[in-house]
Q: What sequence folds into this?
């Protein structure tokens, strides 16, 4: 049976690991100026926080999220991983603002360079999370989000969403097969990237309208051991599906090709499907809605611990296991 599917719309969110929610909150809101749109818990382990940073209201394609795992060890970088997360800024001039800001806040960063025809600035957070700011100056694809006007970063320079996701894999062709044959991505080019003194070819794939918000960049590194994740690593990447009806078609499609998967998962803020591509990287397909304003109004997003309705009867026990985290500052 042929299942008719719409193209995926680009990045939905990226979820990473932190060992310190308080420091994480300070860095991503005070230094990077993103808005905490939801303070909730990991629905698969309610003893830990799940923090969502995004644009003004958590529009799809703007969310960088973190699971707090207090005892997470260090990350040993390697292959078969989501090796860098990028964040979109309005234009090239923004990167000069950010370079000065990183110097002011003593954020470890590289020089401003060019990559795949775009100006970029790579940096690391306090746990070594690998991040890159990418200029949207020449972007013609998926629209960016809307920065929060109460951010400490001026809106003309502010982060506007997720840019390309960077994968490092040991077997390029197996990841590419899933991206193109299953998920419908198309190759749009390659570029050379120098890493640790050696040059590697990175392949670029896009979906939907394309552009910075809909690209996956893949580098093959057969010379590396498998990454050992910990604090500062990425847990998974999620790609945008228009609605629940479309997601259910994807559930059938993934089942049809016999890839082990989660099936349909209710996350309240969106609906999801999880599976691992052949190199072991966790992919999620997630719906654009319902969004983050079903349990908090726009003006107070992220200020209180939000729990989906199916966890409300456990609120007292859940709150007792969490360290207080003041997000009203």
A:
């Amino acid at each position: 049976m042929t299942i008719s599917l719409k193209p995926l719309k680009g990045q939905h969110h990226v979820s990473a690991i932190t060992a310190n929610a308080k420091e994480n909150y300070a860095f991503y809101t005070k230094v990077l100026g993103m808005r905490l749109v939801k303070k909730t818990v990991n629905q698969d382990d309610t003893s830990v926080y799940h923090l969502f940073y995004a644009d003004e209201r958590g529009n799809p394609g703007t969310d960088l999220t973190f699971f707090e795992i207090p005892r997470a060890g260090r990350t040993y970088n390697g292959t078969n991983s989501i090796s860098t997360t990028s964040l979109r800024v309005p234009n090239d001039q923004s990167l000069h603002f950010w370079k000065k800001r990183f110097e002011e806040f003593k954020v470890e960063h590289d020089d401003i360079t060019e990559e795949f025809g775009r100006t970029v600035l790579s940096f690391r957070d306090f746990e070594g999370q690998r991040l890159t700011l990418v200029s949207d100056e020449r972007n013609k694809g998926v629209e960016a989000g809307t920065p929060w006007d109460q951010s400490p970063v001026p809106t003309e320079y502010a982060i506007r969403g997720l840019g390309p996701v960077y994968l490092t894999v040991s077997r390029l062709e197996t990841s590419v097969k899933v991206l193109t044959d299953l998920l419908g991505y198309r190759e749009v080019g390659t570029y050379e990237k120098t890493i640790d003194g050696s040059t590697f070819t990175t392949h670029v794939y896009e979906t939907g309208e394309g552009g910075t918000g809909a690209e996956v960049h893949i580098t093959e590194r057969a010379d590396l051991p498998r990454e050992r994740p910990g604090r500062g690593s990425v847990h998974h990447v999620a790609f945008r599906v228009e609605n629940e009806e479309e997601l259910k078609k994807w559930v059938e499609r993934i089942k049809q090709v016999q890839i082990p998967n989660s099936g349909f998962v209710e996350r309240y803020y969106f609906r999801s499907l999880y599976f691992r591509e052949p190199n072991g990287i966790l992919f999620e397909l997630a719906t654009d809605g319902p969004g983050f304003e079903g349990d908090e109004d726009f003006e107070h997003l992220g200020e209180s611990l939000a729990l989906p309705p199916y966890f409300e009867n456990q609120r007292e026990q859940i709150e007792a296991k969490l360290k207080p985290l003041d997000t009203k500052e």
